[in-house]
UniProtKB/TrEMBL annotation:
Upper taxonomic lineage: Bacteria, Pseudomonadati, Pseudomonadota, Gammaproteobacteria, Lysobacterales
Reactions listed under catalytic activity: L-arginine + H2O = L-citrulline + NH4(+)
Keyword terms: Hydrolase
Gene Ontology biological process terms, A to Z: L-arginine deiminase pathway
Active-site residues, Swiss-Prot/TrEMBL: 405
Name listed for the protein in its UniProt record: arginine deiminase
Any Pfam family the entry gives: ADI
GO MF term set: arginine deiminase activity
Length: 417
């Protein structure tokens, strides 16, 4: 079995290994009344979501040598009884269901992996449980197809997320065990483990962390990633570096901007997708430059916005506007994840085709727009120049994320800046 080392030094290097998760029956374990409890605005059609997600996985399998499925990786490590017990004890303790450990231990690896995603029903065998509004003793994981958030691969190690909402803590536990135990992943420990009890006072999620270069990160200070979480990352990630610069973007604490990658993603060495009102407009988000050396934050400086802060590091960028130039369309398409592109090679990106004004803006910026199905069925090949693959995503976007949210890069080629 070939082992993949963690190597992620940019947002745009050619993709070699990525983890995704196909939506499953867990998506159907919610009602309009309970959707908000699992961070959804509405219930989602699984059949439609599967057809759309198949386009993402189909394109990735054409452009990336190793596309790994979260559930399969989980089933692999559950064949080891010690790992299985450790994982189940951690999950059951999280949900205060320690009595279920023995019952779950008897399940075979694949059915158990599936059940961990789909949830474990609550046996209503006493009054407290009978009166409980919950159907599940261990809840399902409808957010698990957003693999980006619970783990971040940065440089040569992973960061295990410290999730802002309890409904996503199970994902972090499962992925921690995968990165710790799976023979396909050469993980040399963690920069930070958000599942540890001594890290409960911080929140850190992957949608807020962008690796620009070896010496430069951009991090969102959002409703999902806290200031003390960013401080902790700054100290850990700079520990073995002579210097590390981090630009922090202060996001509005609202649903539309839960993570930085909902308003800003890298497309190429010199091009970014942005939601102009919060990145380049007159009411743009404040930015802070944190300069770190050998595990210490040396100084912090405030900037009027992200573009000015990045120019300080020699990054003169072309800003493509999510939603084009019209303010009304910008707001609509940002809401439907129009800025959330995933870059799988320099200048080669994938995003949702229903955001038509955004795709037109990309085309005007020199990106050839190619339908995902044409790539999957070998009707078209990616050009040497810039290209944006357009996939169906109207249903997936209702879950609150886009292509970057649904991908966890493990290994990328280096980029020459």
């Amino acid at each position: 079995m070939k082992t993949t080392p963690i190597s992620n030094h940019s947002e745009i290097g050619r993709l070699n290994t990525v983890i995704i998760h196909e939506p499953g029956p867990e998506m159907e374990n919610m009602t309009p009344e309970t959707a908000h409890e699992v961070l959804f605005d509405d219930i989602i059609s699984l059949d439609l979501a599967l057809k759309e997600h198949a386009q993402l996985s189909g394109v990735l399998k054409k452009v990336c040598p190793n596309v790994l499925e979260f559930e399969n990786l989980l089933a692999d490590i559950l064949t080891d009884e010690r790992t299985k017990l450790d994982l189940l004890e951690a999950v059951c303790q999280l949900h205060q269901q320690q009595s279920l450990v023995d019952d779950l231990m008897v399940l075979e690896a694949k059915p158990l992996a599936a059940q961990l995603f789909q949830g474990t029903l609550m046996v209503k065998n006493n009054l407290e449980k009978f009166l409980s509004p919950s159907r599940h003793a261990i809840p399902p994981l409808p957010n698990a197809f957003f693999t980006r958030d619970a783990v971040m691969c940065v440089y040569d190690k992973a960061i295990i997320g410290s999730m802002a909402h309890k409904v996503r803590l199970t994902e972090a536990i499962l992925l921690k065990h995968i990165f710790d135990e799976h023979p396909k992943l050469d993980s040399q420990g963690f920069h930070f483990d958000g599942t540890r009890k001594d890290n409960n006072d911080v929140t850190i999620e992957g949608g807020d962390l962008l690796v620009i270069r070896d010496d430069l990160l951009v991090i969102g200070f959002s409703e999902r990633t806290s200031a003390n979480g960013i401080d902790r990352l700054a100290e850990r990630l700079s520990k073995n570096k002579e210097q590390l610069d981090i630009v922090v973007v202060e996001l509005p604490k609202i649903r539309a901007t839960i993570h930085l990658d909902m308003i800003f993603t890298m497309l190429d060495v010199d091009t970014v997708m942005n939601f102009a009102p919060l990145i380049t407009g007159p009411n743009k988000c404040r930015a802070f430059h944190m300069h770190c050396e050998r595990g210490e934050i040396k100084h912090i400086k405030e900037y009027s916005g992200l573009p000015k802060a990045l120019r300080n590091f020699g990054m003169e960028l072309n800003f493509v506007n999510c939603g084009g130039e019209d303010a009304f369309t910008q707001e609509r398409e940002q809401w439907t994840s129009g800025a959330n592109f995933f870059t799988f090679a320099p200048g080669h990106v994938i995003g949702y085709q229903h955001n038509k004004a955004t795709m037109e803006a990309l085309n005007q910026a020199g990106f050839e727009i190619i339908d995902a199905l044409d790539i999957i069925h070998d009707k078209k090949t990616l050009p040497n120049g810039k290209a944006a693959v357009a996939m169906d995503g109207s249903e997936l976007s209702r879950g609150g994320g886009g292509c970057r949210c649904m991908t966890l890069p493990v290994h990328r080629d280096a980029v020459n800046w």
